[in-house]
UniProtKB/TrEMBL annotation:
It comes from Paraconiothyrium brasiliense. This is Exonuclease V. Belongs to the EXO5 family. Signal peptide: none annotated. Residues 1-31 are annotated as: Disordered. It holds the Pfam family Exo5. Residues 8-21 have a biased composition (Pro residues).
């Protein structure tokens, strides 16, 4: 499948804030300061990075506007690009207007969904949604039809069936009955296997979401270090489901980006300078979809119609979205897989998390630092010396220690 990119797009530059103290004397909310027009809308990264430390992310945005690209991030980008190149061929294409450039994003999402439908795998799928009244954008590293853990899937399917009000298929065992039978307990029930019903329910394939993380070492993260990754995967699933169900208001998306949804794409973009193929041109063996693609863009000549085509591709491609979410960890120096971690999607968990983070973004509360149990994060934080939260926690700990010492001395008298 082809992945199109605009020709001669300059790389984004990050400039430190010219203010000597960017945190002082600004009463605007984080949303007003960092993610209001003409600045870009919220990203999935904006919502999940605070799961590591809200205050650290606030300091980062205040000084740079976004996370500066470290050497580790650059190595990670190379690995992501190599994985994408395994299934997508990148082709430059002419874009004239901002509608062309956003149309290119929609077109690549359409091609990514078709790749998933035809091959069972796609990577770098861009998505959009609305969370807490705000437009949110993200890119899912991987979607596939390959189940990462069939045993977990089986238990999940059975648990769902049991929790659906007891309306199991005729003769189907409950979870307790199924596990009881596996242990050899005699049950007065029809002899129907769990696997036979599971095969019935799997006529519609699940789509599985995965996120690829690179690590400087070969050890897997654990505990609090995994929290941002879990929130990221859950948010991806939440946004993907909204697109699949067609509950995302396209007009709100277009308005946030300042786009004219009925404005026609440029001829240069539709024909792609020969990349997409002229509708009257000969068949291009390097791009077998070229004639079809050109015709499709001619028949979907604006953002509104191309968005509708994208939604139809979602509904054709994704029968159901699995609740099993996978984080794949790779060694940054070589790209080799060092392990996977799985989590089950929980709508209540991500809804509560997002609601709390939106309170901070909208200024309803101040940013918080880490609790004492996660003080290890401060050792690798660039803002540790200027962090007011850290100083306050140190003072609180010192005072508690002084009070405990005083109490011991009094009891010893």
């Amino acid at each position: 499948m082809s992945r199109l990119v605009p020709r001669q797009t300059p790389p984004p530059q990050i400039r430190p804030s010219p203010e000597p103290n960017p945190l002082a004397g600004d009463s605007r909310t984080p949303l007003e300061r960092f993610r209001t027009k003409p600045k870009k809308p919220l990203s999935v990264t904006d919502l999940v990075s605070p799961a590591w430390c809200e205050l650290q992310y606030f300091y980062t945005l205040s000084k740079f506007g976004r996370k500066p690209r470290t050497q580790a991030m650059k190595m990670g980008s190379k690995i992501h690009q190599a994985l994408e190149d395994e299934i997508h061929t990148t082709i430059p294409v002419e874009t004239v207007s901002k509608e062309d450039r956003f149309g290119l994003k929609l077109w690549n999402t359409i091609q990514g969904l078709r790749c998933l439908r035809q091959t069972g795998l796609t990577r770098e799928l861009e998505i959009w949604g609305i969370v807490g009244g705000q437009v949110v954008n993200g890119v899912i590293d991987e979607l596939s039809f390959a189940c990462p853990d069939p045993d977990m899937e089986e238990k999940l399917e059975l648990a769902r069936a049991q929790q659906s009000g007891g309306t199991l298929p005729l003769g189907q065992l409950s979870i307790e009955q199924a596990f009881g039978k596996a242990k050899g307990i005699k049950l007065d029930l029809p002899d129907i296997s769990v696997s036979s019903w599971l095969e019935e329910t799997k006529r519609d394939r699940h789509v599985y979401i995965a996120d690829v993380k690179t690590r400087g070492g070969r050890l897997l993260p654990k505990g609090a270090s995994l929290r941002p990754t879990w929130m990221q995967l859950m948010l991806y699933r939440k946004l993907l489901e909204s697109l699949f169900l067609n509950t995302v208001d396209a007009e709100t998306i277009f308005a946030r980006y300042g786009l004219a949804p009925l404005k026609s794409f440029s001829e240069a973009f539709i024909l792609g300078g020969g990349v997409l193929g002229d509708a009257d041109s000969d068949f291009d063996p390097e791009n077998p979809y070229s004639i079809l693609q050109a015709n499709e863009l001619i028949s979907h000549p604006n953002l509104s119609s191309l968005w509708a085509l994208m939604i139809s591709e979602y509904q054709q491609t994704i029968p159901t979205i699995s609740d099993i979410l996978r984080a794949e960890f790779r060694y940054a120096k070589t790209g080799e897989v060092i392990g996977n971690e799985l989590i089950i999607y929980n709508a209540d968990t991500i809804d509560a998390y997002v609601e709390r983070e939106m309170e901070w973004w909208k200024g309803s509360r101040e940013a918080k630092g880490v609790e004492i149990e996660e003080a290890f994060k401060c050792r690798i934080c660039d803002f540790a010396e200027e962090c007011t939260w850290r100083k306050t926690k140190i003072e609180e700990a010192t005072e508690k220690s002084r009070l405990r010492k005083g109490a011991r001395e009094k009891s010893a008298i």
